[in-house]
Amino acid sequence: MVEACTWLWLDTCLCSPLSRSSAAFQLLKPVKTLNGKAVEIAAGLRHALAVTAEKGLVFQWGVGMKSLANRGLQTLPVPAFMSAREPCEVPGFGHVKVKHVSAGAYHSACITDQGWLFVWGSNKYGQLLSSDDFLPLPFFIQPHHFEGEKITLVRSGWTHIVARTGNVKLFVLICLQKNAFLTIYLWVYGLRQNTLCKPTYQPIRRFR
């Protein structure tokens, strides 16, 4: 029986001028430092996430968030997992088990077994629903933003997050600019007789 193992591919174009035709363009490397078997992985621009099966722990590695964390936190210490080159456990979940993870360019998101949504990382576009520019630790998004429903799936883009509930509603957290103001909108999509209804939206946060 082959033992389950997590592997990663390193795109060397971020650190060397190798051409895409070069055999060294992608390096296959096993990840041996996870505390448990990974059941789901996700990759951002320069960081990666994994969630383990038995304990539902989240691990992060990669240095993509380090410079943003230094600027956003200023004199505050940067958590170790923000600059780890090997899988490092993400703290802040207590005894809650995580089931799914998603990675944006410079932010991360996860869903717990209770259907709660946590986010952390760069909040440059306000998609993390916080007044802070950078979230160094997992931030719990209150369920009332999703009409009290449990989240079953989350996906992260460069500047937005899409969350799906058990009732097959899609909630899109996105930032739009109008009249020199940036406003975070929560777009809600619903299904009616297997047809996608016209979305409704509401402003959540407005800032210059």
TrEMBL record:
Which segments carry the RCC repeats? 56-114, 115-167
Gene that produces this protein:
Sergef
Q: Name one Pfam family in it.
A: RCC1_2
Q: What is this protein called?
A: SRGEF factor
Enumerate the Gene Ontology biological process terms: negative regulation of protein secretion
**What InterPro entries does the record tag this protein with?**
RCC1/BLIP-II, Reg_chr_condens, Ub-ligase/GTPase-reg
Entry keyword ATP-binding: no
> Which species expresses this protein natively?
Polypterus senegalus
Q: May I have one GO cellular component term? A: cytoplasm
Instruction: Tell me the lineage of the source organism.
Output: Eukaryota, Metazoa, Chordata, Craniata, Vertebrata
Alphabetical list of PROSITE patterns matching this protein: RCC1_2, RCC1_3
Is Repeat among the key words of this record? yes
Q: Which UniProt keywords apply?
A: Repeat
